[in-house]
Amino acid sequence: MNTDPRPTLIAAARQFYQMGWMIGTAGNLSARMPDGNFWITASGRPKNQLITDDFVLMTLDTCRSEAYLAPQQSHTQKRPSAETSIHAAIYSLFPDAQACYHVHSIENNLVSRLIMGDTLPLPPLEMLKGLGVWEENPQVAIPIFANHLEVSRIADEICTRFKTKMPQVPVLLIRDHGVTVWASSLEGVSNYLEIAEYIFRYMVAVK
Ligand SMILES: CSCCC(=O)C(=O)COP(=O)(O)O
Ligand SMILES: [Zn+2]
C-alpha cells in the first residue's frame, strides 16, 4: 500500500455510516503503510464527515499493552482512537494485515449475545467463501471477547488467545460492542466486513 490510504478510509467510513454501522462517532478504521506505521482514525470524530486531518499516524512496536503505541504527532491535540491497541494487536499478530476495520452494528451486537461462550458458530453459508473458506458444509466459528472498559485488556486477551489458537477467518467480535475485521488490502477489508455483516443479518433473521 504505497499511496495515502486516508481518502479510502474516509469514503469507507461514510459508506458504513450510511449502513448504520458507524453511527455518530462509533467505530474506527486503520491502514498500514509500507514502513509498518499505520494511519488510524482520531478518537471521537463523526464518522460521516471525516477529513484527512482526522487521522493519527501510529508506530507499531510489539504486541503488548498500551506501551506498544507511540503517537507520532504528540504535539497536536488529536488523540488516536481509544481502540488503537486492538488495531496494533492485529497488525502485530498478522504481518500480512494491511487494514483493520471496527464497526458497531445492531446485528453484530445481537449475535454477540446468541451464545455466552467465547466462540460463535457461523451458519454454513455460501458467503463464507468470501471470507476464504472453500469447504463443503463449512464448520466455522469466530472468537468473541469480553468488552472491558480498559481497552488494552481486550487487546491483551486477543494477543494471548490468538498466539495459541489462530482464528479460522479474519473476524472477531467484542460482546455488546462490535466487530473487527482485517485483510491484506483496503478492498479486501471492506469485502470481509460486508460479508461478516451479511452473515450476522442472516443469523438475526433466522433467530
Ligand atoms: C460511541 S462509540 C464508543 C467508543 C467506541 O467503541 C468506538 O468504536 C469509537 O471510539 P474512537 O475512540 O475510535 O472514536
Ligand atoms: Zn468500538
Automatic annotation (TrEMBL):
Protein function: Catalyzes the dehydration of methylthioribulose-1-phosphate (MTRu-1-P) into 2,3-diketo-5-methylthiopentyl-1-phosphate (DK-MTP-1-P).
Entry's Gene Ontology molecular function annotations: methylthioribulose 1-phosphate dehydratase activity
Keywords, ordered alphabetically: Amino-acid biosynthesis, Lyase, Metal-binding, Methionine biosynthesis, Zinc
Species of origin: Anabaena lutea FACHB-196
Cofactor mode of binding and number, as noted: Binds 1 zinc ion per subunit.
UniProt-listed InterPro entries: Aldolase_II/adducin_N, Aldolase_II/adducin_N_sf, MethylthioRu-1-P_deHdtase_MtnB
Pathway involvement of the protein, from the record: Amino-acid biosynthesis; L-methionine biosynthesis via salvage pathway; L-methionine from S-methyl-5-thio-alpha-D-ribose 1-phosphate: step 2/6
Entry similarity comment: Belongs to the aldolase class II family. MtnB subfamily.
Reaction(s) this enzyme catalyzes, per UniProt: 5-(methylsulfanyl)-D-ribulose 1-phosphate = 5-methylsulfanyl-2,3-dioxopentyl phosphate + H2O
Protein name: Methylthioribulose-1-phosphate dehydratase
SUPFAM superfamilies: AraD/HMP-PK domain-like
Annotated Class II aldolase/adducin N-terminal domain residues: 7-204
One of the Pfam families matching this protein, by short name: Aldolase_II
Binding locations of Zn(2+): H102, H104
EC number in record: 4.2.1.109
EC supergroup of this enzyme: lyase
Cofactors named for this entry: Zn(2+)
